[in-house]
Every structure is written in C-alpha cells, then in structure tokens.
Amino acid sequence: MALDRPAAPNDLNAFWMPFTANRQFKKAPRMIVAAEGMHYTTSDGRQILDGTAGLWCCNAGHKRPRIVEAIQTQAAELDYAPAFQMGHPRAFELANRLVDLAPDTMAHAFFVNSGSEAVETALKIAIAYHRARGDGARTRLIGRERGYHGVNFGGISVGGIVNNRKMFGTLLAGVDHLPHTHIPENRWTRGQPEHGAHLADELERIVALHGPETIAACIVEPLAGSTGVLIPPKGYLQRLREICTKHGILLIFDEVITGFGRLGSPFAAQHFDVTPDMITCAKGLTNGVIPMGAVLTSAAIHDAFMTGPEHLIELFHGYTYSANPIACATAIASLDTYREEGLFERCAELAPYWEEGLHSLRDCPHVIDIRNMGLIGAIELEPIPGEPTKRAFAAFLEAYDKGLLIRTTGDIIALSPPLIIEKAQIDELFGTLRGVLHAIA
Ligand SMILES: Cc1ncc(COP(=O)(O)O)c(C=O)c1O
C-alpha cells in the first residue's frame, strides 16, 4: 500500500453507501484495503476468506496477474474510445469470444456497464424487436416474484423483491409476475428440486389474461441468486421455454450471477440445456474488476433491426462507456484466466464436495433449509420472531469477526466463493460457519 494513503479514512460521512445500513456501518466500519487470491485484507491487518466472490463476481479470485497486466497495458495503449459510430479492436474481439462461449444461438453482444444496464437494455431490445417486425402491440413484460434484475426502473418493475420496489412509485406499466418457485416441499434438496415445474404454467394463465399478442418478453434468472438461491425445479425452465415459443414471447435469461462458470458451465443456459432468446450478463464477465455487462442476442433479434437505409442508426440505445477499452481488455483477460485454469470445469468437479460440506450444517442451530448447485449454496435460518433479517445479519457480523465473508439476504446466508477455492478452504469455510451458527442467538 502507498505510504501516503491512510489505511482507513477519518471521515466516513460523505459516502452514501449502496445497499448498506449506513449509520450502523459508520459506527463500526468493516474496511477492506487489499485482496489476493481467496482473501481480503482488512484495515486492521486480518485475512478474510472470501465466501462470496465479492458480490458473486470475482470468479477467478483476486489480483489475478493476467487481469492486472491487461488493465495496465490497455490503459497505456488506448484508454478510451467512443463506441458510437467508432470502434476499437478489443470490443470486436470480446464480442466474438462471448458469442463462442455462449449457447450456439447467441450471435451478437451489446455492451453495457452493469447487470442493471444489461437488464434495461434487454427489455428495451425486446420491445423494439417486436415493433421492428410490425408487432408493436407486444409491449408487456413478465418477470417473477423474488426475481432480482438490478435496480433501474425496468429491472425493479420486472423484479419481485418488495423492498426494492415499494419506495419508488408506480414503476413500469404493463408488467406482470410469475409466482416464485420456492415451495416448502423442496426443503433440503441437493441440486434441482423435484417439485414445482407446474409453476411455469402460470405463464399460460398470464398469457390468457392479457392476450399473447401484447406480451414482448419473459425475464427470469435461471437460478435466482440475490433473493436467496432459489434453484429451478426440474423441468421448470424447459416448460417456460415451450410456452414462450408457443406464444412468440422472447425468453430472457438474466445470467448476471450464473454466467461465467458459477454452475460449472459457461452459462446456466448450457447447464440446464434450455436456450433463451437473450442472455444478460455482467459480474464474472470482468471477474468483477471493471464495471461491464453485456446482452447476448440471437441472430433473429439482431437481424430484425438491420433493415432500412444503411446510413441510419438501427437501435437508439447505448452508453458512453459501452465497450470501454479497459473493460474489454479486462474481460478478455478474465476469459483467458477462466480458460487457462479450467475454472468452469473446476467448479463442476468441486460441486459435490461443496454440496457435502454445505449440507453437513443441517444439524446446526437455527437452520431450516439448505440448498445448493454448482459453487452456490444457501443456508436459510429461522427468523427471530418479529425481527426478520436480524439473525442472518448477526451471522454475517460474527463470520466477519471469525475471518469469513458471507452474504445475507433476508434470513438466508448465500455463499458463492471464487471458483479457485481449494478443498481445504471449503472445509475452513464450513467449519467457521458451524462456529458462527453455534455462536449467534
Ligand atoms: C440476476 C441479476 N441481475 C442483475 C443484477 C444487477 O447487477 P448490477 O449490480 O451490476 O447492476 C444482479 C446483481 O446482483 C443480479 O444478480
């Protein structure tokens, strides 16, 4: 660390922290000053095992040499170039790399700067696509209860998390929601649950209510992460695909968490063998290091816009930082790291060991459900009566004290370590968590 930089700032007031209990944090700050491999270093010099890959994004762990070098080199060569009516080679290289990695039908990549922007972009493309084909009445969007699609207006409209919606007015009109798939019969399931494929049929009910000719797209996370790790029941995604195809509705998979190896395949679409019409991604795209997201689309969607006079812009959408050269270089270096180290395959190999370790916590106090897939796990705790979220937050603080970073949502502990985790670190993680669950009230 540079000597002229303090290990901790002396005034915490100015920074309004995102998704944070600001007043509580500023009374007892948890300050991270460095990271390498599987660990964070705190301002008081402690090593913290990263049980969450940052925010589900550092799939190759921290301070990876290829990525650090790519950023340095790119910054020295081409720091910024406009992406409107101009191009630079890295953007095209990255688009090709992504299309190669994605399911076969994905043929194009549109670059954005976050998962939230990827979602907004996909929803706009869906509506504009139908209009471009002369099907302009298709404007409705279908999301799902307990879905998380970022925090912009489109995303919270199709999303299904009450606290993310209720403060922000009426949101987008013409949105409907499928029921979530988290049903009690599926408690303690390892991998995909048996029950709940029929919940996809609710889409038929919504279609019948509004008329298929009014619906543009249905967006779901193939595996819902931020809302507490809700694994799709067997057959559910296949059924959604069938219904969307039958009614001409575009299916969008929000793979901001599941993209880039989290389930052991490049994308969840491949893992579940269900192909959507668009994929949104971010996070692991750049190993979380530089903000970047993308929307992957089929050729049919892209080609519907490629009509009319060639000198005219086909899609009036884009961001100043779309395909930022440093972001592109970071993404390419991340994909190189994933490939060279075989991290997606490694995830698939480690998944059974991870599952065993996770489910060994079943006998711990407060635990009412455990679920897992790939290198994702959730431990659901019995809420303290009248004080939802308090118990899980206590677990978060206790884990941090014990040298482990976990994430909590509601009363659910969500885990998603970097894919470089070693078996001994998996043991350490669950050993620490066992201590945490015994320590909290
Ligand atoms: C499925 C999903 N979509 C969208 C987002 C939003 O991404 P960002 O925070 O980069 O805007 C997230 C973030 O966790 C996510 O999990």
From TrEMBL:
UniProt record similarity statement: Belongs to the class-III pyridoxal-phosphate-dependent aminotransferase family.
UniProtKB keywords: Aminotransferase, Pyridoxal phosphate, Transferase
InterPro entries recorded: Aminotrans_3, Aminotrans_3_PPA_site, PyrdxlP-dep_Trfase, PyrdxlP-dep_Trfase_major, PyrdxlP-dep_Trfase_small
Keyword Transferase carried by entry: yes
Superkingdom, taxonomy of origin: Bacteria
Protein name as it appears in the record: Aspartate aminotransferase family protein
Source species: Rhodobaculum claviforme
SUPFAM superfamilies: PLP-dependent transferases
Listed PANTHER family: ADENOSYLMETHIONINE-8-AMINO-7-OXONONANOATE AMINOTRANSFERASE (PTHR42684), BETA-ALANINE--PYRUVATE AMINOTRANSFERASE (PTHR42684:SF1)
Cofactor dependence: pyridoxal 5'-phosphate
GO terms classed as biological process: biotin biosynthetic process
